[in-house]
User: Fold these one by one.
Assistant:
Number 1:
Amino acid sequence: MHQPPKFIQSLLAKICPEYLWEGIAGDLEEQFYYDIEELGYKRAKQNYFWNAVKFIRPEILLRNKFKLKINNTIMITNYIKIAGRHMARRKLFTFINAFGLSIGLAFALLIYLYIQDEHSFDKFHANAERIYRVEEYAYRAWDPDPENPYIQSPWLQTPFAPTVKEELAEVEFAARFDTGEEYVVKSGKKIFTEPITFTDPDFFKMFSFPIVSGNQNEFLKEKHHAIITEAMAKKYFNDVDPLGATLLIDIDGEKEFEVVGVMQNPPANSSLYFDILVNQTHRFNYERSLANWSSFNTPTFVQLRKGADYAQFFDNLQGIRDKYMSERLARSKERYSIPDDVTQFEYHTTRLDNIHLNNNMYWHKVSDPQYSYILGALALLITIIAAINYISLALTTSTLRSTEVGVRKSIGASKNQLISQFAVESVVLVFVSLILGVLLMYLFLPTFNDFTGKAIELNFLNLLEIAGFAVLISLAIGLLAGAYPAFFLSSFSPTRVLKGGASTKVRAGIARPLVLLQFTLSTTLIISAFVMYQQMKYITTKDLGFKKDQVLVVPIQLGWTEEANLAVERVRNNLQNEPDIVSVAGTTSSFNRGWSRYGYEINGENKKAYVWAVDPSYINAMGIELLEGRNFSASIPSDTTALIVNEALVKDMGWDTPLDEYLNWREDTASLGYKVIGVVKDYHFRSLESEIEPMFLSMDKYEIGYYTTLLIKLKAGSLPGALDKVEEAFNESIPDKPFEYTFLDEDIQSQYASFERWMNIMGLATIFALLISGLGLFGLAGINVVNRMKEIGIRKVFGAPVSSIFILVNKQFVLMALIAFIIAAPLASYLMNNWWLGDFQFKIEMGWPIYVVSFLIGLTVALLTVTYHGIRAARLNPTSTLRYE
Amino acid sequence: MSTIYLGEFEELMLTMVGILKEEAYGNAIVEEVKAQLERKVNLSAVHVTLYRLEDKGLLKSFMGGATNERGGRRKRYFELTSAGVKVLQSLQEQRMKLWKLVPELKFSI
């Protein structure tokens, strides 16, 4: 005999009201036997299952669990009414309670949005799970570092994409995506520089950036095609339809491009960004690099076919290496005597939607996943701190409710009813805070975006998610934080309460360590925020060895050509007699705009040095100090092959008299090399995160590079007029190129943007935490005063002055701030030294002023928050507390 | 009694209980609906609706005698209360009254 499925039967039996069970189970089983005859055992079993599952519905469940009696709904409305009255009567407490909770909630919601945004990167592409960025891991033959033996980089060989597409069965599409380099773009009178992206037609088949107009199957099919974003369309063509319009782009000479498509701007949570897309083939020296497997010059994405085996694909990638690179690898193995067991080169991949959180590799908008975790932990802490407040505040006011509880109990309220009454109260309060919290979140969102460098917008989707999350955490807080006070209040004995008046002592038991925890965390945050602030101040005001103020950075926009060097001369001549301009210097690149570094061999030893091509004005314009020798001179012809080195290089080479030395920095020349004519004092040519390393300056523009940038030193206080003159001179000397400029000090500051953002977030968290723990302390102080009412009363009767009572009440809070500080100081110093300051080569010492100031802030907050209760206690009329004794 | 509104499915169930008389229990109603209207109804929906009608006082239920074919479980039978009968009747009257007011359906071909 066949049996109905046992599992679902017993499950249903559990949730089904007992008095209905027999009828339901009987009907189900009857149906089951009919079905066996009609449809067979297998189908019957399935039908039984689904029929049974459909019984799991509210009409059945609710009948079982809580039969909602009319009676009860009246009570609940009554509870809500009482809760409302209670809140209205104690406005201050209600405000503090609701405000603390809503701040906590607002912060948690903001962090939730942040983390959600971090994890939403690139997920909008339909094929995100099949698209991979291919990367290289190359052994550092030149400078082996046992800790970190591989250079990891997303730059691949130009022939890689076409080759894998042809040779690997798993690859459906492959597109190179080389972005970022700026070129001059012209349309009619509009002329700007824009980053140009070089890519392949496959790009539009792989990625789901929405197309605004144009036929994406035709994109980049022809060499002269260009695809632009909506922002570009607006910038160059206003609202006129740009399809078919012409853009002149100066890549290696001015060329005409036809706009064949407009795409939506890449969203803020995209790891790929672009403004103007053109065909790969326009890249400098494209034909030559297409035959070259030894230079790595373009990032590459591949899309695997549906159902393709990733492991197989990965193996095949190494096959591509063996096929095309083995000769070259063998050569370098011999040359650098690389041990046999070392893998010199490997292809690796990162899936598109993981790119954003893979911070091992340089890419647009990568971020450290650690930040999400730390922020998440911060949000959790602040929420917990807020919940703690709720408990301690509810306990503080509980004695005031004792009479109410006593009356309710004596007229027959059960303990359960009282608990549900207080539960309703806490849920009501939490929902009020929720509304406030969401409002606060909304208000803070723009600031938060500023601080984090994000562009989070509220839309229907994330709003829905936020709403779900908010309701969830507020219910959790409401129930968890409301439970303890509810049980506590309902346990009052009616006889004691009604007979003896309000004398039930509040057990501050759990509240005290929790508030201590709050305070420790807040103090840790204060110290951390302080350290960050000090470090930021240090790196922005530190003497860099050169003068970064009043310097304009102006890109020449003529590419790496002889013409650029001539343009520098023309600008210089034009500005020669301007009193507001101190000097005009040309260089290969400005301070934070990239660098070149050469390796050379001295007596069999590998050395490296950074190098810049500069003109004779450079050292003066930048205020770099010359220690020995002389500056370059335009009138000494041999200076084109002369060098000025820095102290670090002199030290590295072990020179005693550097001016007698030559530096053979080209490993392939047999001559002595270039003569050293001067030594400059070490200056910070890179950010303060790195040491000052060996560096030299040269006038040899043919070998090192042409000038791309003008650095123009202005006289202090002459800004607007001088700027106009520079623009005039620029337009005259370099016609047809856009005049764009930045200030060097701002450029240098921007190197620390991510640190600055992080500091801002910590500052925000600190303020929130301080506010909330201040409120917590306020609650605890309240408990303290309530518990000692009688003691205070007796002391006053015996003539204790107000001040002594004030001290009595507040003493323990000073102590608490001290204990919190003693725990927090080593914690914060450990965290800061190992995590934040560890990133800097040049950093502040965490000296005693930081600690003292942080302690004072903590103490002040503590004292300010407890003062209210202190004064209240001190001014208490003893008759009111001692009346019943 | 004057204002009891029934949903379509509630009305169907009430009618079915009226039709099946002593034999009105969950499964029989499912079968009868299938037989009369060629309509598949879900057992759980039938049960839940019957309980709701019971809550409204239009039906009452009792357990029948033990049987063999249902794993020995008894059936929960439903029958109309007098209120249920009245609702059924008034529904019928209302339908007829309205039906007569529909002019186009007086066959003017």
Note: Chain B touches chain A at residues 25-27, 30, 42-45, 47-48, 51-52, 61, 63, 67, 69-71, 73-76 (CB under 8 Å).
Number 2:
Amino acid sequence: MDFVAVLAIEFLGSIAILVLISIGLAVVFGMMKVINMAHGEFLMLGGYVAIYGTNWAGLNFWVSSLVVAPLVVGAVGMGLEWLVVRHLYGRMIDTMLATWGISLALVGAMTMLVGNTTQGLSTPLPSLQIGAYSASGYVLYLIVLAGLVVALLYALFKRTTFGLLARATTQNADMVAALGGNPRRIYASTFGLGAALAGLGGAALAPMTGVIPTIGASYIAKAFITVISGGGAVIAGNLSASVLYGVVSQVFTYLYTPVIGQVALLVAAMVLIRFLPKGITGRFFKRSI
Amino acid sequence: MTMTRRHVLGAFGAAGLSTLASPLLAKTRPITISALYDLSGGLEVYGQPIVDTLKFAVAQQNEKGGLLGREIDLKVYDPQSNMQLYSQFARQAALADAPDVVFAGITSSSREVVRPILRQFNRLYFYANQYEGGVCDRNMFATGVTPGQTVDKLVEYSLRNFGKKVYIVAADYNYGQIVADWVRKYTQQGGGEVLEVEFFPLDVTDFKTSISKIQSARPDYVWSALVGGAHISFYRQWQAAGMHGKIPLSSTTFAGGNEHVVLTPEECNGFMVCQNYLQELATPENARFVEAFHKMYGADYPYITELGMGAYQGFLLWAAAVEKAGSAERMPVIEALETGLSLAAPSGQVTIDPQTHHTIMDVHIARVENGGLIPVQTFAQQAPVDTAVSCNLREHPGDTQQYVVKF
């Protein structure tokens, strides 16, 4: 029984991690159809802000990871949107190339600034005793955090004027402009929101894995697979794909090895995209956000 | 041609030359060392200390007037933890630098990429890392420890102090696989039992599942042959899951990449390691070395790792061989090393074993404590017994195989 509880925490933990690394990308891709190749680097930046905020600036870990990291990375995201991305809306391949360039530049810049040694933080929460087993308290925190992020994002899109405008702009930007909205500003803030969510995710994962300028590469594939498989609906798609892949990879990791777990995730993604080319929400939960 | 150019240079550049510390050194072609070590991309935790130590060794030698009156020129390449770049840079170094010796490779995979290339171009090769043993190649000298020197000592110590049941976690490439086999072999010899072996690719950072698998297997201790920056997550998650201190951990890779400095004391105090070199060694040679090293890099230098020392003593042995041979040419240097060259390094006496081209040296079992390694037990002058079983370069100088342990 204890073991089942420990396993359940791990399954939920894997799902939560997938949500945290991909939700920012889902916002940017799902709402704006911008393929943001620099998403992994936004995660990396979030991790560095958390580490330097805590170890160097002496901030409380929770402040630096939950407040400072999203703000800083969100600002960076909006800056890059203004500099580069806004000129390329509607040109999907071009945004991909441009953001890839941004990602290379960010890796280079961070390597120059902080060096290329893996840096880390100690996990800030004690472990959890469940019967004869102990589990990581921090994983439990990640599960709660992912849940909160999803709930708040849902509220933002569903209950606020910004959410309404953002959803309207993705459907018909010209109409929004005709009705007095400002699509330019909405795009900028949506991109900033996606970046801020990436910053939050990266900061939350930093104590688990350590951060190095090239760490984005190890997140980006999973993030894209999750977002593409999820389909058009940002939240429902992201959640359903995260659950599916989290469970698949954990089951195979548990039964066999982590390598097989990764392979299983990729095979599941290939099969899914073959039969649901528009992602899970292209077929199911169509009317959700 | 070179003579005339030299004369012209001498006439026009006398002012320039006189500013050099020793005009004599500048007149001859420098002795060239190419170094290929990952300074980025995940294995940089190992590469950076090695390159620092090599630079220190070269600077120290140049201060003494170089070798054979020639300056030493160190050319460093960063293959970025990428095997393709290893192959590319090894060729580039061998052809463009025309190096007298090459120091290269951290992982066994990178060594196996570089080794045939350097052999093909007749470039003497020093592999300075601890590894799984068994490489038999007259063109290569290994100045790091092998499992026959460390793993057997630490397995025996762990069986005696922790218990008979071990759970192995290892990196998923030739090093991790072969070392896991050695741990299994020594455990069985010592009457112990291997409960499970798990392999992780070098970029895996999520160890949650394995940690609960370890908990349900209830081993007496865990053996870690994890490697690189990503795998540091294991120790962090081990602590986060509350396992640190509940199940002891032994490793011959831990601390090789300064893990004990990167992690906090709460995360790794009490881990047991077995290495050829500890910065804490209380010998006059080591005290002098550490002092000089800190003078160059500052007293706050994180830790001089065993891998750094492997490169340092490799350099010392090579330099001694060059002096003995009176030449930096490949074959005379190999023959000089094959005389059983021996010297006192900061890690203790180091001697080239002519039969295997490996190194006879001291090893120490040590306990991780507050960012340092506290020596617990010392084994003097250990020969590379694992490699010696199958490798005899005196009888088969043309051998180029890597032999692996068989059951």
Note: The beta strands of chain A are 128-130, 133-135.
Number 3:
Amino acid sequence: MSEQNIYLPYLMTIDKIINEAPGVRTFRLKFQNEEEADAFNFKAGQFGEYSAFGEGESTFCIASSPTRKGYIECTFRETGRVTTGLSKLEEGSTMGFRGPFGNTFPIDEWKGKNLVFIAGGIALPPMRCVIWNSLDLRENFKDITIVYGAKSVNDLVYKHELNEWEERPDVNLVTTVDPGGETPDWKGEIGFVPAIVEKVAPSPENTIVIVCGPPIMIKFTFPVLAKLGFKDDQIYTTLENRMKCGVGKCGRCNVGKLYVCKDGPVFSKKQLNSIPAEEY
Amino acid sequence: MEIKYISKEGLNEWFSQIVKSGKRVYAPVRERGQVEFKRVQALSEVAEDYIQTTQSIKSSVFPRAEVLFSFEKENGKVAVEDFNPDAVKETVLWKVHPCDAAGFKPLTAIFNWDYKDKLYNTHLEKTTLVTFSCAKADNSCFCTSVNGGPGNTAGSDVQLTMMPEGGAIVEILTPKGEALIQLAVSAFEKDKGEDKSKYLVDVPKVFDVEEIKARLATAFDSPVWKEQSERCLGCGACAFVCPTCACFDIQEDAHGSKGKRIRCWDACGFSLFTLHTSGHNPRAVQSQRWRQRILHKFSYMPDRLSVLGCTGCGRCSRACPVDMNILEHLISIAKK
Amino acid sequence: MDKLRERAAALLADGTVALVIGYEEGTNKPRPLFCHTAEDAGKLIYDSRCINNLAVYLTKKELMGTEKVAITATIPVLRSILQLSVENQLNEEKILVITVTEQGELKEFAGFAEIESYIADFQLKLSGKEQEIIEKLEGMTREERFEFWMKELSHCFKCYACRAACPLCYCTKCIVEENRPQWINPWAAPLANIEWHINRAMHMAGRCIGCGACGDACPLGIPIQLLTRKMMEDLGPEFGFVPGQPSKNGNALSTWKADDKENFIR
């Protein structure tokens, strides 16, 4: 068989649309071609290029877990031309997907460990994949803690899943909103994510922490984790530099000599130390 | 490799046979005060007496704008039409300089890094390179400092070294080159045993690229980037004339229900190249972008793809509106 | 030249300015120079070969900083400074403008108003070669002219050196980068190139000061400066400005007045 055109997307049908928060939607996508669906495989942490035909492509992590077969999900905020174009699509319509690209969370190496997930705002989607992946293999891990914060109650995504995690006895979920973002009946924490992490104070003993959020949140969370005694090789994050091709050619996503699309998007804090922080 | 000789008349005969074969022939042509590669029909159209074409020949394999695929939407459904490799024509690139031919190696490394780029590879497969060794150079040329040279045959299918009487030494370097010779085999004569090196220009080696690579490994935070880039205007002239720059953008050309996805040239020097939708820009100032250009070519590419991202053609220096002379900058890095 | 170097060195040494923007010898012709120390000032030159429009750097935040900057200004640079000032892009307090008169004397301007009276004596002239092309173009039919520009602009590969070299193209996000909607197709192709260059000319209408930096910067030798030059000459009488002098009546693209004589917009 001749070489495939790596820029040609899979045709996907939007099976389900969930409105998560103002401007934020989750799409459940199914392959239109059965052979492609059968051959498709991915792992937690990988990303793809999603396209609205007529508008272009945008990069998001795959937000569903590889343990859930038959579909993939993506969650995005309506911001630019492509995400606005995607937002106009309805259930049943066709969009494009290229992927999976990039590396994965080393979830197999985390067996027998405690996991702490820390996410801010629209950065929960890239982590949702690995959260569900761990929860679906729950017996492989010890304590699972999720710290999730957003600007306001309204901005929290995956509200139905947050409820599910809240109710599960085997998950310690801590939600927080920025001061002023609470509603009268808000029962979670009030404060910025780094401060809440300090308050929750997870033990570094036999623990892996996965942080994902806006650069400013990450910048202030790392020192808190260091203070709590976490070593750099216990901390993981996923970077979201601007990309076009997703496959190491278009030249946008370098951070130093590393390419977020090929060497990442998942990096340990230890790896990040070797690349220039100003470039992500 | 086989060496032959071709006379001036033989060259004319061979060229016309190539054109007659139906292959498209691109060669340097002087027009509007510039010399650029253009499609030609006769050897007489080909420019003489110039140092370099303004633009490199990379557009033959990586066009300025190229359709990746096209699509049509109907009632929420989409039908796509893939890139068709059969539509790409056999092409001969005539009178390419060795520094341009050398540029195909880094381009191939980028476009085939794990994921194979079908479009690039199709163009490359259907391209035959007839290079001419260099008898002339200017003060922007530095091929010998980046592992090249005026008679370097890397990337060439056939290399000609012109002799004063109008004939040429012909080096047949690949099966593709051999096939091109076969189009007019009688036009070629036996090798006269002449040493081609005496017809080559002397391009002095001015820096040690290994030394530059070693220095760049720890130069990320050096003040040199700010110093060198103060006058840089942030345009894409250097990247667009470069034989190895391959940064691109993917854009949508849509009209109603029909559209095309297009790959087009982009440049790391542009201020919005790395801008995130959030407004955050990891390379917000020109010094960061200049550093990316140099490190990418002389440090990241050698590290990751085992190939230098520069062939010493000097085009960027010639094209720069504010004389960002890359050779001068590299020498100053080597001295730091 | 010695006087300029001495003065620049003194300004840097006593801290009057933190930076002097001028010219130095380059590879084959002069190029912009940024002097941060009195020692750097020794490299300054100033002669008729100095054609880069240095005013382009006066709107770059990363270069300008918070301290005072001196600039050695040729006539086109002076014109650019005035136009930038009309458009509220410069802080007069932070810029010391120095020129060298035709008599070879150093002249430091007390303020932008003084530049205006100085510049009034200099007529904007086209070079002989440019005049020749303009006359040739004016002699063509509309179709021939269109063909001329289609052919010239088909060479454009959208490196945007024209935009980067223009002191009046200071927008942080250019219309060509705007994608909602996509006003101009960003790739290089004959039609998409025309879209870009017509837009550039329109945005420069009544603002271009005729320095020709865009054309000088074009690596592909497209005479794009003629588009804005011609625009300037055609618009001058209509909008009440003299080519080469700052246009205080606003730019032609975005200015509307109740007493405009055209009534298509009413």
Note: The beta strands of chain C are 19-24, 31-35, 69-72, 95-100, 106-108.
Number 4:
Amino acid sequence: MFNLPTANIGGQELFVLEFGDIVNYFSPYTAALFIFALIFTILAIVSRPERQVDIAFGGDAYYAKEVDPGLLRFQRFMAIACGLATLGAMVSGDIFNFTLFASLVGITNIGIVAAYRNRHVLNAAFQYGIVAMLATVPLFGGAAIILASTGTLSMWELFTDAVAVPVIAKAFLVIGVMGEGMAPFYVAKAEITRAQGAPFILMVHVSSLLLFLRVIEIVISM
Amino acid sequence: MDMTYTVGLSVVALALVIGFTAIVRERDDLHRILLTDLAEVVSLVLIALVATDLAEALILPGLVVGISELMAVSEVYIAKEGLQAPPAEPAFHIEVMDSAPGILALILVAYGIVLSGFTGGAVAAVGAVFYFMCRGHAEQFELIETVSGYAWAIWIGSFFIFMFLPQYWFFAVMMAGGAILLKVMAKMSLVGTMRGGSDV
């Protein structure tokens, strides 16, 4: 019944999950991304976060930073939510669902870093939050323009040759995902990595990278 | 494409340019939060321009995402600036506020359940808002969250019935109607707690 129109990018579909007219799919490409996200979600669930150690410059002394258990619980929850949102974005067969999952990743990323009471980290999280909020404009705008110009949001329709998606919509989609996941803005993320709890912070990076890989697949296929 | 859509799109583009210029020029963090909210509204306009039933269905998640991001960033701002709400005394206190809330809230909530759906939720919520505004709300807050969570689960459950067992649609409609009553009521009750307090 289902056949991916462009098999040369993601490969043939392996498995199709149908919710009414929303059809999620696994191709070798998205399945690989899915498994990658799944591994890191499981890591976030089972891992014991490490303590961060500050070395005092010019001596032997170091400070071991205490991490509040309540904060860790919150951070673990946010990391798992971020993983689930990434999983959803990887297999989504619908542009709007993809954008929603992308913005969910943005929100949970703010949540992962925002729990700290370190001024630098909070400042970075705030700037990042502003960018993530602004990124919803091109993200949803791109989806809306796709809907207006083609009349559908289903990737099964959009990937066919008969449907032409305007370049501006594709550009909006990529810019939006870049803003939500902050994929190329590692400079802005540098302060965020001062937050304690390595596996959870890792989730920020993993989710943004996977999102970026997925949006590239979508944009090329359209 | 339609002429109206093109005109609307150019207006939105103009609004975006104005909004983004304002955000770039603004230095005050609080004002920047407000300006980003303005930009989010423009993105809703972009969706609304499509002007079909589907667009209508897409605006709601867009709005929810915008609000949740706004709340998250606002929380970060509060933590960043170390702001704390001053302990608030009730603005006014009169005799009837002790005796009336229970009865009035009961009547309104009962009538809301009879109405069911969105309208019922709004009516029942007025009762709950009134109750929480007159009495304290420190303890009931968790109860609302719990009820809202269950309502959401029921709502999702009824959607699964729509998808997988369409022949039982009437049962699902009833479930969804009851759940959305609880959801709307829970959301609007939060308005009654908006005077600040220990756990708000």
Note: Chain B touches chain A through 39 residues (CB under 8 Å).
